[in-house]
Structure formats: structure tokens, C-alpha cells
Known about the structure:
By secondary structure, the chain is mostly helical. It has helices at 2-9, 28-49, 54-71, 73-77, 79-93, and strands spanning 15-18, 21-24. The protein has a two-stranded antiparallel sheet with strand order 1-2. Strand 1 (15-18) and strand 2 form a beta hairpin. The longest helix has 22 residues, at 28-49. The model has no long low-confidence stretch (mean pLDDT 77).
Amino acid sequence: MAVGAVIILSPPFATLKFGDMVISINTLGGVSALLIGAVLLVCAVALWVAPRFRLAAGIVTVLLSLVAVVVSNLGGFVVGTLSCLLGGALAVAWTTEPKKPKAAKRNDGAEPEQTQRVQPT
């Protein structure tokens, strides 16, 4: 998830030179990419430091990565969006508690029902 945030952060502030031509993307997309990337980094740090906020951080990550597609250069040229979507989905699905085995159906402490066996004749 942190890698995706860095990928979303980098393209708007990159300055590309092609001979004498300089291409710089310092527009509203750059400011929004900075904000989205910063919040994604905060969510990544929150997952490491305070795992109890995993659900909120995961949901915010998924939503911001979808917003980044529209706002900031296809979300880091789609690579940042895909890595943030994967990290957010894993954060939502992650739990620290082991899965409990399913208990057999019982009648609240009553004796289990006896079934009759029929012998084929």
C-alpha cells in the first residue's frame, strides 16, 4: 500500500526533458495527488502501528485509490491504484484473531436426537 502511495505521489511532480522541451505537471492534479498520497501513507502507517484501525484504514485506502484514478494521472498510471486496491482489500480482510471452528448444532444442552437405523431387507 505504501508503494502505491509513492507511485501516486511521484508523476505530478516529475519534470521530464525531451531535448529543449520541458514537461512539468504542476497543476491541481499535483496538489490532489499530494493529498491522496499523504493520506494513503498515513493509512499504511496506521496499519503497522495500530492494527485495530485496519477496517477504517482499508476502506479509506480503497476509496482513495479509486479517486486517484480520476484525479491524479490515472492513479500513478494504474500501477499505484492497483497496488493500493490490493493493499486496502488485504487490510479489510486481515484479522488478528484465529478463525473459530464451526460448532456442531446442538439443542442447548439437551441430549442429541436419536435417529432410528433401518436395516435393508
